[in-house]
Amino acid sequence: MHFPWTEELALSSFKEACGTWEEDYDSLVTPLIEDEQPSYILYRLDSKNTSGYEWLLISWSPDNSAVRQKMLYASTKATLKQEFGSGQIKEELHATTPDDVTLSGFRRHKRAAGAPAPLTSAEEELAELRRSEVGVGVSIDSRQTLSGVAFPLTDNAWKAIEGLAAQKYDYVQLRIDLNEEKIHLADAGNVSIDKLSQKIPLDCARYHLYNFKHTHEGDYLETVVFIYSMPGYSCSIKERMLYSSCKAPLLDSIETQIGLPIIKKLEIDCGEELTEAFLQDEIHPKKNLHRPKFAKPKGPPNRGAKRLTRPQESTGNV
Fold first, then answer.
1. What GO molecular functions are on record for this protein (predicted)?
2. Count: domains in the chain
3. What is the pLDDT of residues 177-202, one digit of tens each?
């Protein structure tokens, strides 16, 4: 079907069925398309519903056709479906190249339409985590909390955090064992701020606790900072998901059970960020002391000069 110059739908061609719809498809449909000329093609399928045979509606709109014609056909499609009977149209295909109109092109369209929608990064990580539960036996549901997944701390990890709270250490690094489902101690000791960046692994995620000793406005301060390092997508989806999910329960255990207050929580992807100036800015953000004064709004434009009125003197007799 196409539009003649009077801009009404008109039948331009009609073919009888010979075999099944798949057998007849390429021989009947592909000869109907014209270069630079949009059209509608209604192709009868072999399936039926309560209204009779079901149909495939092909909207042929080549890329090199005039913009006006494309707009005209796009705006008329709903009317065509209503007049023909939308209940009888089972499938729809929008084609812009001759290959789209072929039977193989229609099958590609069907496969694409039936494929699941693309996942977001969070959905992809969750799906990968669920798949991995079967392989390694990660029973997430049994230890799931309102804010994440609670993996237990090993004795060594627990003692190291207590050592930091008692000022025995100023640095503790923790790692998750994905198979044991536990949080282990990776490193503990005393680290100066200029060496802290060297403690951040480049190929795996880690949790870090650091007692940042510094001065601010003349006062000596010791501030415990929690750092979650994740070096981008060099880690597996499962590792990223578990470190992200275990963070909140771990922080809750450190603060409520061990009693170590954490003043600042940071997330980084590389150790280069961890400088003294960076930590200072994060813990003591600079205040903006230069606040702009309120500007009095201007009056309406073109209101003219003010007018002075005088009372007129009475010239008549009372």
1. actin filament binding; actin monomer binding
2. 2
3. 988 889 999 999 999 999 999 999 98
